């Protein structure tokens, strides 16, 4: 069942849960994540980020995810993650993505607002949801030219009011591409943002968050939690193990089967954590 972000987050809000959002890098990830959600009877979000659409054109990966979402037995949102280019967002809208994110986190406040409003004006008439970001979640890779910045609660309130986004990503201590669960979160900052902002809040870079803190994020009212590195680790480590065990194997279809199982099981773990009811 294909849902937009606004409607799928409404399900989470009604249940007091957060919806798990997974970065997808191809058919295998998409199938594994949907199977995980179906086995748990929980909604889920499939996301294509910049790495994914640099590897596979946005219309190709989009059609894969949209086709699988329509056939799924649970609500599935197909979301474009961290887009900084209006042209790319338009392409995603044209192919049928049900949600898009404009990432203006590296722009001055006024420019971020103006471009996010442009995306909202493009998407909302087509019943496509929009996620914005205020503050900036950094990266663990020092080679990436990026300036992290904690979200200021008053700025979050003003940004949400001016843009009318359907979801708002905030920076409270997570870091993209962490491979260990050692992120130090500022829950008091998050609490203050939640007091001022009615828009559903989003946490990016959640692979680095300890399981108990993921649960705490949900209890604090976060409604979308992004996970990417965790399923990449599950896929990559399982692939490596197979090469170690059977170095003569070359058939990627055979190799990918165990990787898909590993991704499904990791996805189930995270979906369960975020589903408090």
Give a structural overview.
- The chain has 277 residues and is α/β, with parallel strands linked by helices.
- Helices cover 51% and strands 17% of the residues.
- The protein has eleven helices and eleven strands.
- It has an eight-stranded parallel β-barrel with strand order 2-3-4-5-6-8-10-11, surrounded by nine helices. It has a two-stranded parallel sheet with strand order 7-9.
- The chain is globular and about 55 Å long.
List the helices and strands and how they pair.
Layout: E1 2-3, H1 5-15, E2 19-23, H2 27-40, E3 44-48, H3 50-55, H4 58-71, E4 76-83, H5 86-95, E5 99-102, H6 109-123, E6 129-134, E7 138-139, H7 153-163, E8 167-170, E9 175-176, H8 187-196, E10 201-203, H9 211-219, E11 222-227, H10 229-245, H11 252-274
Parallel strand pairs: 1-4, 2-3, 2-11, 3-4, 4-5, 5-6, 6-8, 7-9, 8-10, 10-11
Helix pairs in contact: 2-4, 2-11, 4-5, 5-6, 6-7, 7-8, 10-11
**General shape:** globular
Helical content (DSSP H or I, runs of 4+):
40-55%
User: Poorly predicted ranges (pLDDT <50, ≥5 residues)?
Assistant: none
Cα end-to-end separation: 21 Å
Evaluate the radius of gyration: 18 Å
Q: How are helices and strands ordered from N to C?
A: EHEHEHHEHEHEEHEEHEHEHH
Count of helical stretches:
11
Mean pLDDT: 94
By DSSP, the count of extended strands is 11
Give the strand line-up of the largest sheet. Answer: 2-3-4-5-6-8-10-11
What about the largest sheet?
8 strands, parallel, barrel
Given helix and strand content, the structural type is alpha/beta
Strand content: 15-25%
């Amino acid at each position: 069942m294909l849902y937009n972000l606004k409607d799928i987050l409404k399900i989470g809000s009604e249940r007091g849960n957060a919806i798990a959002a997974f970065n997808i890098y191809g058919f295998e990830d998409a199938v594994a994540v949907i199977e995980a959600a179906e086995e748990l009877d929980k909604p889920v979000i499939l996301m294509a980020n910049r790495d994914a659409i640099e590897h596979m054109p946005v219309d190709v990966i989009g059609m894969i995810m949209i086709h699988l979402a329509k056939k799924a037995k649970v609500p599935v949102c197909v979301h474009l993650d961290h887009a900084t280019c209006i042209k790319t967002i338009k392409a995603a809208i044209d192919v049928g993505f049900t949600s898009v994110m404009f990432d203006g986190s590296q722009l001055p406040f006024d420019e971020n607002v103006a471009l996010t409003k442009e995306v909202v004006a493009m998407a909302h008439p087509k019943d496509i949801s929009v996620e914005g970001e205020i503050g900036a979640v950094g990266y663990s890779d020092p080679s990436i030219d990026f300036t992290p910045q904690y979200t200021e609660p008053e700025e979050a309130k003003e940004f949400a009011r001016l843009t009318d986004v359907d979801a708002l990503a905030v920076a409270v201590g997570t870091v993209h591409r962490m491979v260990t669960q050692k992120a130090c979160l500022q829950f008091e900052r998050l609490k203050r943002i939640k007091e001022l902002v009615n828009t559903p809040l989003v946490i990016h870079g959640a692979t680095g968050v300890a399981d108990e803190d993921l649960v705490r994020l949900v209890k604090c009212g976060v409604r979308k939690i992004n996970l990417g590195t965790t399923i990449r680790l599950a896929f990559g480590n399982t692939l490596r193990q197979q090469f170690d065990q059977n170095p003569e194997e070359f058939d990627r279809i055979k190799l990918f089967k165990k990787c898909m199982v590993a991704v499904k099981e990791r996805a189930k773990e995270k979906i369960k954590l975020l589903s408090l009811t």
